[in-house]
């Protein structure tokens, strides 16, 4: 009986303080296209760009991307740290992408070759996951508790049952197509499905994940463009979906989004200022519901981001897709 009560109490605590699955949600932003889909790395076709993002209390990222000389493709190299109070995950990602603007099978008409292009890419991820601390011993739960990066709360009888650190690798493959003003992309993540559990008593393999993105560019006069888009991420553990709309003007970028992940939904808004070759902005996200549980999570989150072009590419040689993406990140 006591054990049953303990499980109920633990379940209520989990729902009330349910955390986002940072493994699933990280990098699902159009201002980080190479994280959404590796084929979009370096899509602005500049030689060197800096991308940074920090979500207060959850993550920070630092990446460089660009175009390789001699038409050898695009690249992105970055460092990312995701963390809760108890667990942290450090990741280095190395991405390579290529573009084919004149596929004879998919663009048979001469005029289509100017509008159509497809891209493909791959990312190698090198992870180091570490245990920071555990909460106090909880007799009702039967041990020490800690919250993992995916939002789950794990319990171990003794602190000796926790791995202090573990290293693992992962691979992401992706492709995307652009025709006229429409873009679609599909990627598969976590191909190696590594065991990432810090508990010695159980295993937790990162599930195979599919990622789909679709978006389109809608010009609003000479100096404004609208980019509505949707991202859907599916795994055996979670489903994440995001619908957003971005507006780029001469000096500003405004965005609004609705996101759902299992029992959690949130809305967000961001504003970014363009100054020469740099974009700096702030994002605010407010959880609005935790679904059927009847509980509401009211803790907002903030992101600070800065993207900057260090060495620009020649505009004359850029694709139309690159010119459109330049407006948004």
Helices and strands, with pairings:
Blueprint: H1 2-16, H2 22-25, H3 33-36, E1 48-55, E2 59-67, E3 74-83, E4 87-100, H4 110-115, E5 116-131, E6 144-147, E7 153-156, E8 165-179, E9 182-189, E10 209-216, E11 218-219, E12 225-235, E13 239-248, E14 252-261, E15 264-275, E16 278-289, E17 301-311, H5 320-326
Antiparallel strand pairs: 1-2, 1-17, 2-3, 3-4, 4-5, 5-8, 6-7, 8-9, 9-10, 10-12, 11-12, 12-13, 13-14, 14-15, 15-16, 16-17
Explain this structure:
The chain has one domain (2-326): Beta Barrel (Porin). The strands form 2 sheets. The protein has a 14-stranded antiparallel β-barrel. Strands 6-7 form a two-stranded antiparallel sheet. Residues 1-18 and 291-296 have low confidence and may be disordered. The chain is mainly β. The protein has helices at 2-16, 22-25, 33-36, 110-115, 320-326; strands at residues 48-55, 59-67, 74-83, 87-100, 116-131, 144-147, 153-156, 165-179, 182-189, 209-216, 218-219, 225-235, 239-248, 252-261, 264-275, 278-289, 301-311. The protein starts with a helix and ends with a helix.
Give a brief rundown of this model:
This protein has 329 residues and is mainly beta. The protein has five helices and 17 strands. The strands form two sheets. A 14-stranded antiparallel β-barrel has the order 1-2-3-4-5-8-9-10-12-13-14-15-16-17.
């Amino acid at each position: 009986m006591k054990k049953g009560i303990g499980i109920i109490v633990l379940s209520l605590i989990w729902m009330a303080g349910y955390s986002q699955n940072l493994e699933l949600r990280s990098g699902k932003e159009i201002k980080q296209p190479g994280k959404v889909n590796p084929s979009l790395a370096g899509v602005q076709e500049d030689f060197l760009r800096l991308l940074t993002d920090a979500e207060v209390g959850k993550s920070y990222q630092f990446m460089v991307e660009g175009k390789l000389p001699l038409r050898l493709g695009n690249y992105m190299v970055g460092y990312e740290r995701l963390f809760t109070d108890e667990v942290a995950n450090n990741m280095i990602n190395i991405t390579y992408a290529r573009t084919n603007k004149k596929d004879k099978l998919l663009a048979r008409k001469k005029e289509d070759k100017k509008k159509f292009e497809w891209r493909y890419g791959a990312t190698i991820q090198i992870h180091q996951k570490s245990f920071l601390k555990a909460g106090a011993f909880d007799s009702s739960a039967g041990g020490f508790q800690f919250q993992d990066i995916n939002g789950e709360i794990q319990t171990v009888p003794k602190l000796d049952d926790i791995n202090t650190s573990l290293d693992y690798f992962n691979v992401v493959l992706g492709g995307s197509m652009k025709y006229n003003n429409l873009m679609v992309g599909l990627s598969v993540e976590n191909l190696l499905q590594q065991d990432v559990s810090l508990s010695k008593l159980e295993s937790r393999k990162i599930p195979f994940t599919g990622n789909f993105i679709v978006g389109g560019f809608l010009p609003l006069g000479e100096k404004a463009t609208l980019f509505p888009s949707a991202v859907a991420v599916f795994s055996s553990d979670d489903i994440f979906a995001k619908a957003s709309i971005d507006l780029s003007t001469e000096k500003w970028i405004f965005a609004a989004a609705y996101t759902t992940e299992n029992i959690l939904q949130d809305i967000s808004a961001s504003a970014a200022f363009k100054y020469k070759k740099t974009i700096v902005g702030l994002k605010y996200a407010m959880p609005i519901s935790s679904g059927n549980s009847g509980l509401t999570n009211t803790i907002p989150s903030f992101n600070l981001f800065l993207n900057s072009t260090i060495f620009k590419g020649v505009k004359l040689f850029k694709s139309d897709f690159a010119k459109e993406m330049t407006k948004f990140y």
